[in-house]
Amino acid sequence: MISYPSLRILFKLSSDRRGLALIEFAFTLPILLTMVLSGAEITNYIIVRMRVSQLALQIADNAARMGNGTMLQLKTLNEADINDLFAGANLQSGILSLQTKGRVILSDLEPQTTSDSNSTYKIKWQRCYGTQPYTSPYPGAGAQNLSGLGPAGNQTIAQQGNATMFVELYYVYTPLVSAKLVPSTTITEIASMSVRDRRDLTGGDNGVYPVSGASKASC
């Protein structure tokens, strides 16, 4: 049987509201912390993905502009130009560290023949950059009789007498908190640009001239 003093103590405890806010905060803290960390992780992922997409587009654009020569002659492309292109992309990537966390595949897409009635294409050459292992879903250098290059239904092509620079950029995302909070820890973006100026597509090694001191960025 509970004594009267014990009943008084129990009654006081039942009506005591001191520390209630602290208890409620302790219960809600894990939920609040999960929401904050998830928001930070997703935001960072979106920013990184946007930067990777912009970087792929920038590489394609710069690849379409590179070359040596005047406006009165066909511009020539050499291995040093391509190496400089990749080195510049790595510098532009900044803390994303493209060289160690990414893989870039640059493809030269050209018409299969000189006939306007033939709508097939070939990959004349490819150059790669970055140390991450990556298997492309698209054909490699030397592939012919292609309807285009890229995802089905959204393939890029090349105009007669010209080439298109097609870029695949694969990047390994480093989570801030946990990989479980993002859709994927790998990001793959593609971009393409038509070559801006008239380019020598036949000289050198399939259109790329060797140059002393510049190694070939083979795939």
UniProtKB/TrEMBL annotation:
Q: Which InterPro entries match?
A: TadE-like_dom
Name the UniProt key words of this record, in alphabetical order: Membrane, Transmembrane, Transmembrane helix
In what residue span(s) does the TadE-like domain sit?
A: 19-60
Q: Which residues cross the membrane?
A: 20-40
Organism's domain of life? Bacteria
The protein, known as: Pilus assembly protein
